[in-house]
Amino acid sequence: MRETLRVLHLVTRLERGGSSDCTLWQAMGAARRGCDVTVASGPTGRPTPLLDVARRLPRMRLVPILSLGRSPHPVRDLRALLAIVGLLRRERFDVIHLHTSKAGALGRVAAALAGQTARVIHQPHGHLFYGYYAASGRPWSSSPSVVWRASPASR
């Protein structure tokens, strides 16, 4: 008999549309196929309507990371990192699926600090660090690639 696969999805926020909906569709699909799924995210002002559907699924759990926000903020980002590390130390996940740039960067570091690097997947979705958000004047613009190179999961 096979054990139930435990999956964590970490996303910066669950706003209406885009990466939030993509994340929830993936999480709900895994839950409907028998996985135990946790979705951790920061607060949102305009939640996606899919949250109501996700909340009703028996194998879905939503965990708030209250300090996780989109804009860079060193103190809140450190608090978010510590909250994610705490979640990873309390629970063992078979798959850690990271979405969006900030959640991906913090999630990789947290997974390394918590010793859970075997199955870390980062799916950035958006362009906070790339594309139409110009890198000029943003010292953090190269952080995803730096974190990726430093992560034990990438070696």
Can you give me a brief rundown of this structure?
The chain is an alpha/beta fold and 155 residues long. 39% of the residues lie in helices and 19% in strands. The protein contains five helices and five strands.
Give a quick set of tags describing it.
155 residues; Rossmann fold; alpha/beta; 5 strands; 19% strand
Task: Give structural notes.
The chain is an alpha/beta fold. The chain has one domain (6-154): 3-Layer(aba) Sandwich (Rossmann fold). Helices cover 39% and strands 19% of the residues. Strands 3-2-1-4-5 form a five-stranded parallel sheet, with helices on both faces. Helix 1 links the parallel strand 1 and strand 2. Helix 3 packs across helix 4 (101-114).
Overall spatial form:
globular
Amino- and carboxy-terminal Cα gap: 32 Å
Oligomerization state? single chain
Mean pLDDT: 85
What is the CATH first-level class name? Answer: Alpha Beta
- Give the biggest sheet: 5 strands, parallel
The CATH architecture classification is: 3-Layer(aba) Sandwich
Q: Helices and strands in order, then pairings?
A:
Blueprint: E1 6-13, H1 18-32, E2 36-42, H2 50-56, E3 60-64, H3 74-90, E4 95-99, H4 101-114, E5 120-123, H5 143-150
Parallel strand pairs: 1-2, 1-4, 2-3, 4-5
Helix pairs in contact: 3-4, 4-5
